[in-house]
Design a protein that fits this description.
HAT C-terminal dimerisation domain-containing protein, mainly alpha, about 200 residues, single chain, HATC_C_dom, protein dimerization activity
Length: about 200
Amino acid sequence: MPREKAADEPLTLHQELKRSKLYCIDRFQQEIDTRCEGMECISDRFAVLEPNNLIETSEIELSKFVQSLVENYNELSADGILTEIPRLRRFLKVAKVPKEESLGWTSLRFLEFVVEYELFDSVPNFTLAFRFFLTLCVSVTWCERSFSKLKLIKNYLRSTMNQARLSCLAILSIENNVAEGIDFDDAISKFAEQKVRKKRF
């Protein structure tokens, strides 16, 4: 047929760009959906730690949230968490924390409250649950970045380095934000005081 395009006719530059953009958009959508599913799973698992549930939810509904958390972490006790929730509510009242303010708290702020008033022995399961939640990796890139530092630290020129030195250098490299704030003159003077040797005559 005249003016009919062949099936194997190559795409124009405009069509190729459009195809690439649509492919990228589809890939972004898939990645976002995957991450949202993971975040929803974590949110459902740690639903008992949400401020609204900690402060206002009834014990019947809380038992469902606690059960989903305990199923994934054997270190936590369901009965212990259910007894610690009223205890935590009483501590908030004694500390005179307004209800509206505590409803806006994050999990980190609740843990800071426990640390501030030294409530580790009173709410041990909650302390452990908050630590589990706050130490979850949002993505694997931070962990992979830590491992990739080892290639830079221990190369073929430093092949005889022992494990203790490698661990210390890796910590300094990974936590470089903290290391940059260290006063080296103060650190050197403390090191010199500890390693001072008295001469015997």
